[in-house]
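Fresh eyes needed here. Kindly weigh in on this sequence plus structure tokens:
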Amino acid sequence: MQLLHAPSSPHLSFQSSKSQLRGFVKCSAVFAIDFSIKPRRDQSLIWTAHRRAIFSSGAARAASVEAGSSKVSTGTAEDDVLKALSQIIDPDFGTDIVTCGFVKDLQIEETLGEVSFRLELTTPACPIKDMFEQKANEVVAMLPWVKNVKVTMSAQPARPIYAGQLPAGLQTISNIVAVSSCKGGVGKSTIAVNLAYTLAGMGARVGIFDADVYGPSLPTMVSPENRLLEMNAEKKTIIPTEYLGVKLVSFGFAGQGRAIMRGPMVSGVINQLLTTTEWGELDYLVIDMPPGTGDIQLTLCQVVPLTAAVIVTTPQKLAFIDVAKGVRMFSKLKVVQQFGIPHLFDLPIRPNLSASGDSGMPEVVADPIGEVAKIFQNLGVCVVQQCAKIRQQVSTAVTYDKSIKAIKVKVPDSDEEFFLHPATVRRNDRSAQSVDEWTGEQKLQYTDVPEDIEPEEIRPMGNYAVSITWPDGFSQIAPYDQLQTMERLVDILQPAAQL
């Protein structure tokens, strides 16, 4: 197991999975905090000045792109430009920027040697956007007939893949990142808040949701001018408060402090706060999860389509045991495979980091060019890159090919690709409508499904399954694990290959 191994090191360690993730980024953290130092409040202007450039040091590491050959094609000027740009590979998708659809508004004045275009990225927080702009200028300028190149950068964040199935408040959030510890007092809220402001410093639109009703931390860690949530009486929605451009929602801002209530009530409050808030368009919503693995955590994991999860712990055995429970919870929910965490980030103990938790100003804001901020920059780069990769994999994991009348499956983080007969998938439904939940008796009979049945729509469901709509209106939830066990079509591609 590679999750944590720092029995004597008082360091904070983050790990985020890459090839072994099943749909989620996961980071583990070893963290120790000292709250003895007085807070610093005089550096917010420094962070404001640096928030757009906070990741310049990380961008150089994020990826390298070969410029390639400058040989001119024999086609049109547009072909020349697109061929040159296709030499630039997006390291997250493993595909060139032309194929990714990043190149927009291409305009060419061949007689004047002028070329202009826009690179539209999927997130304003892209850590290598400066590299993209530089390389695009270079490869196009190398064409013999080009005298002037103008590149404009923009971002059009992707909508949630399954937005139509979400509450209205979550439909315009591109990525949701959960920060969890399952053990109180290990620095989870510190990680959540500093990660959120790091992503904001990269240029992303960010919100923070404090899901701890019993002991909300967010009101202590940030200093919004308005410390009370407002209600839109007409829409019956919640208007979040804001601090330094980041939207904030916490039960601590509801004017009730810490709650005394039973679990089912808490789950209802959390669900209402999260789903009825007017978050607006966000690139990342960071959820500061409450400690534990009970009803509240399970409700959040099942209701919210998490894109990424961050696990935080201290090196002590007692804390690690509880954190391991949380990792297993995410694993059962198909968040991650069992403890597969390749990337490791270490954060040494810094008194000013713990002090910032009491000061109302996150450390990455107070000292945006310090050592702590640099480590959070590395984590932010990892989160952005993995979220982009995961979204691309999930969106194409299960599709229907009408030309061969087969369902194509390529599970995220797997090189295996296979085909299933639609009728086979439909007959293997395990829902209560097809199988008696008490007796296990098969209610859906083989002959109930016509052999020529075809799916009407296939949509991702979180990062672990797809929803398949059939002609009779039935919506089948098909987990990737179940699809992998079904009888496969072996020779289906052979006729097409002979054409």
